[in-house]
């Protein structure tokens, strides 16, 4: 699958999340040409903070991948730039590449990943290659539609900031 197709799959998952009353944030994990996990953010339905789409998708992928050797790169695609927590989880899972659609200036972690110093003591604990801006306008439209329907809340006020990028 191309990076654009992967982000497109994440956009589709985000639509499912929005239809369920969640923020429109979706993620997929792919390896060997097959999407092995997908999830949308579950903050509203679970009433918790650590249920980001990318983290949930990576947790499901980790259950499948386990410790075995990986014959193919592991790739994560998210419609919104991953936060620092989720990029840290991607490093722990040894995700090779991350693709996303729309930047998230308030909490996005791509800049931190780009400047990560790495260490010879943990050579496998390194940031993935991160590429953003795929399907950006489509993702921004998702957030625009979310803001038009969502009740006044902190989530909506944050989502509105993504519309003026």
Q: Biggest sheet: strands, sense, closure? A: 5 strands, mixed
* CA-based gyration radius: 15 Å
Note the run of SSEs as H and E: HEEHHEHEHEHH
- Judged by helices, strands and strand pairing, the structural class is alpha/beta
> How do the strands of the widest beta sheet line up side by side?
2-1-3-4-5
Which stretches of 5+ consecutive residues score pLDDT under 50?
Answer: none
Q: Work out the helix count.
A: 7
How would you name the oligomeric state of the polypeptide chains in this document?
single chain
First-to-last CA distance:
28 Å
Helix content: 40-55%
Instruction: Compute the average pLDDT.
Output: 95
Strand content: 15-25%
Topology, number of strands = 5
Protein described:
- The protein is built from 7 helices and 5 strands.
- With 165 residues, it is an alpha/beta fold.
- The radius of gyration is 15 Å and the shape is globular.
Write the layout of secondary structure elements.
Blueprint: H1 3-19, E1 26-31, E2 34-40, H2 43-46, H3 53-65, E3 74-80, H4 84-93, E4 97-102, H5 110-114, E5 129-131, H6 136-149, H7 154-161
Parallel strand pairs: 3-4, 4-5
Antiparallel strand pairs: 1-2, 1-3
Helix pairs in contact: 1-6, 3-4, 6-7
């Amino acid at each position: 699958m191309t990076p654009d197709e992967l982000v497109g799959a994440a956009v589709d998952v985000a639509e499912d999340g929005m239809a369920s009353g969640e923020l429109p944030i979706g993620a997929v994990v792919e390896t060997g040409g097959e999407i092995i996990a997908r999830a949308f953010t579950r903050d509203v339905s679970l009433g918790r903070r650590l249920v980001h789409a990318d983290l949930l998708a990576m947790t499901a992928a980790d259950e499948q991948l386990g410790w075995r050797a990986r014959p193919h790169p592991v790739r994560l695609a998210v419609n919104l730039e991953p936060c620092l927590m989720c990029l840290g989880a991607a490093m722990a899972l040894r995700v090779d590449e991350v693709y996303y659609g729309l930047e998230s200036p308030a909490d996005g972690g791509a800049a931190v990943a780009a400047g990560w110093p790495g260490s010879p003591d943990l050579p496998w604990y390194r940031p993935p290659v991160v590429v953003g801006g795929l399907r950006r306008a489509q993702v921004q439209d998702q957030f625009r539609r979310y803001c038009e329907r969502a009740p006044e809340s902190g989530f909506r006020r944050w989502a509105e900031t993504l519309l003026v990028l």
